[in-house]
What we know:
The protein is 38% helix and 16% strand. By secondary structure, the chain is an alpha/beta fold. The N and C termini lie far apart (103 Å).
Amino acid sequence: MAANNRRMSGKKGAQVGSGGQRRRGLEGKGPTPPAEMRKGHAKQRAAQAKTRRATAGRPQPRRGGGRSSSELVVGRNSVVEALREGVPASTLYVQQFIDNDERVREALQLAAERGGINLMEAPRPELDRMTNGLNHQGLVLQVPPYVYAHPEDLVAGAHDEGRDPLIVVLDGVTDPRNLGAVVRSVSAFGGHGVVVPERRAAGMTAGAWKTSAGAAARTPVARATNLTRTLEAYKKAGIAVVGLAADGEAEVGELAALHGPVVIVVGSEGKGLSRLVGETCDHRVRIPMPGGTESLNAGVAAGIVLYEAARRRS
């Protein structure tokens, strides 16, 4: 009997049920979602890139990511000039009991005509606090954060148009007016955008918007976390990377690469291209200057090369 008891004690007890998991596992999971909704699918990435291109450059509420911080334009002349040039703005602050001169009237009229700009009356101490004590003269214009594109979006935009990419990359250019001038030239000569580094570089401020003379509204500016890696990615995509340098091996007019997909890299007037960026370029070319001038600013240099590229493509 002892042996029988041992055998009986080794028997399995009652089994716990699956709770319906096996039955649910046999059920269908419903229709397969479209490719654009599947995480990691190539079509979803393409749809996301298209959305980024559509919103690039538009002022939107800051939520982090590819956006700059908001900016204040201060003073009557500066505010009027910004409104004349179409700099995107969200709010015009007007001091209570302000002396109503011609510039104040024009600012109010332009803001009303533009639409979408909030008019706010504020006491002088509040405007002093907002501007950290700057001489605002009773007018302060708030410029919303600029929405930067992704460097890949510029290539995708060119392909959407059925054209070879023509892109300008700025290396170490810190003057917003130079950035605005480059954006204007890219727009004028049929380019597909400008890339700037995330750090130690000019961004799309109100000054850059004004210098672009409206071109910033139709020409995307992308921001790169690492400029060298961005250029390497462009090269892998089959795009020639051309750097402008005073000691370039050839002149711009001799470069055949301008006929096809090309990225033009422009450095600062003083320092030129940084070492790593210069080493990443496929070609280093110079602009002939028989007049004896040693260098050109980024806006002028980019305009010359863009003209040459546009001439050949036409």
